[in-house]
Amino acid sequence: MAHIVRIGVKGRTVLPAALRAQVRVGVGDELVAHAEDGRIVLETREAIKARLRSLAAAAKSDGRAVDRLLADRAADLELEERRDPQQRRRPAG
């Protein structure tokens, strides 16, 4: 089911409760955002790991490719945090 969301003045948007429930995310959970073919994609880290493991298994990999990809993504996230530490503020509480 598609949901319409609006981007606010400060670039914020609210994910509808039904959508959050569908993918089992809640208050304080982190999502990884990236652009893909003109779309904005939000994924949990667990979903990314599962997708990469599945791709590695399909390629009959020994699994090390997934570890390398995860390490590369972790390095990218760390670099992004250094550039703008306010961007990944964790909620208090």
Overview of the structural elements:
It is a single chain. By secondary structure, the protein is mostly helical. It has a domain at 32-88. The chain is built from 3 helices and 2 strands. It has helices at 17-23, 45-58, 64-83; strands at 32-36, 39-43. It has a two-stranded antiparallel sheet with strand order 1-2. Strand 1 (32-36) and strand 2 form a beta hairpin. Helix 2 (45-58) packs antiparallel against helix 3. The chain is globular. The mean pLDDT is 83.
Report the strand count.
Answer: 2
Mean pLDDT: 83
Main beta-sheet annotation: 2 strands, antiparallel
Distance between the termini: 32 Å
Q: Uncertain spans, ≥5 residues at pLDDT below 50?
A: none
| Rg of Cα set | 16 Å
Judging from the principal axes of the Cα atoms, what is the shape?
A: globular
SS field, number of helical segments: 3
| Fraction of residues in H or I helices | 40-55%
Report the order of strands and helices: HEEHH
Question: Which structural class should the secondary elements be placed in?
Answer: mainly alpha
User: How are the strands ordered across the major sheet?
Assistant: 1-2
* Relative strand content: 5-15%
Provide a compact summary of the structure.
The chain has helices at residues 17-23, 45-58, 64-83; strands at residues 32-36, 39-43. It has 93 residues and is mainly alpha-helical.
Topology diagram in text:
Blueprint: H1 17-23, E1 32-36, E2 39-43, H2 45-58, H3 64-83
Antiparallel strand pairs: 1-2
